[in-house]
Amino acid sequence: MKMSQLFGRTLRDQPAEADLISHILLLQSGMIHQVSTGVYSYLPLAWKSLKKIEAIIREEMDSVGGQEVKLGILQTRDIWKQSGRDEIYGPDMLRLKDRRDRELALPPTNEELITETVKSFVQSYNDLPFVLYQIQTKFRDEPRPRGGLIRVREFDMMDAYSFDIDDDGLDINYQEIIKAYSKAFERCGIKTVIVDADSGAIGGKDSKEFILLAESGEDTIILCPKCDYAANDEKADFQIPNNNPESANPLKTIATPNQTTIEEISDFLNISPQKTIKTIAYMSDTEIVLVSIRGDLEINEVKLKNFLKATELVLATDEDLQKANLIKGYLSPIHKEIKTIVDKSIFQDTNYCAGANKFGFHYLNAILGRDIIPTAQIDIALAKDGFRCIKCPGTLKSKRGIEIGHGFKLGTTYSTSMNANFLNQDGQPTPIMMGCYGIGIGRILAGSIEQHADEKGIVFPKNIAPYQAIIVSLNTDKEEIQKISLEIYDHLNANGIETIIDDRNTSAGVKFNDADLLGIPVRIVVSSRNISKNSVEIKTRISTDGELIPLESVLQKSNQLLNDYF
Question: How far, in Å, CA of 117 to CA of 51, rounded?
């Protein structure tokens, strides 16, 4: 490709509407064009990279026996109602009607349709197992799209599904696909961490995320440097240190005027936050719920929502509190009329300070099991940096990252609700055991930029770069320079090195800046000064200095640099 003919153009200044570095550089390099909020067109350079990412993923999925399909995009809402997710997805899923007034949906994911499809063909255990996958454009009406391709409404995704007769088969396919993901991401030149995750609206039991580490990421993951424990903060567990065991003291109330926060109560009573109880009121769909946790910890609302099986979980409003006769700032875990959930951080051998549900008053010496009789006691604490690992004596560390892949053990969640059965060896109808697996194609492109970019621009890994080499042709007004540049260009392309040539009639500074901005792995400079020495200058995108090499060594040196490049 000649840059004089390339569609799109680079921008000298950073676009003001972008915040993340990947968004800035994708716009500045002329790789994407915004259509509407959270919707982008991919221009030639970006599309070449995305096709390479897709090819890598296809090869790795094929290597574990995956069979590629392409499902219909427009789906009937009936199958979503059958699975029960039509309401769960809420406004994230676009719903519409056709001219015959049939209810349809643009799906954000495809568990329903793939289950309906497989159900039509699978009859007995002899038809299992198998893995199906597709790469398709999807739409999710994100309430807060941001960061260019990091969080969008329209996106390209590889989604795969495994179908087995039992848990053992699911475990095998699950592990094989996780390995395929690891190889694919490694070939894409990005570093990822596999973490335990929450299944969210997909459902199912076990779930793992592939997180690309980047400070700009929206996800927080919790890692242990001393062992292999890793989980996102929605799922992470940790060791909760107990207070020193105490004898139970009588429950009593104490005046605490205007002391409504844990910090204020701790200072006022001169006690540690670990000896206080924080109680928060939530609306779990239409039911008010009191949730109590030790004062030095925070509530993990994902864990709480999963336990309550709530479609919607929000903080109770002042009006909600008033209707339930609850006093804001003094909420109490000692309440018989309202469902009360207590975290495992609250132990029976500690005298706690807790709200008395009376304005200006708290309880002292509240004891779990004597005074506090919860509806349930579960793990609803949010793990944080510095907490103790659940698996070893290590100290947990928090990192920011971008989710680019996800695997779920669905089990029979969808096959049961949609009657997708097979006849087992005894001739009995049995729900198909399912797993599902997704990769965000655009997120790999954007995440790679977030992980590798420098102050000059994009730094592409060689396997997903739109081109592997760029020829910067200077002094293009001279026929000899044009001729030699084109000869090198043709020679490299003919020998399998995808090459773009900057043949534009513009300054050397503009060409060098654009070469750095575009992030092509190998740069070759052809100039009058170099040609006078029968040489060209060659360097990688991450090298500081170039090297003069003979003209006849360009192919050999380019291959060498690419072999050593990441």
Answer: 27
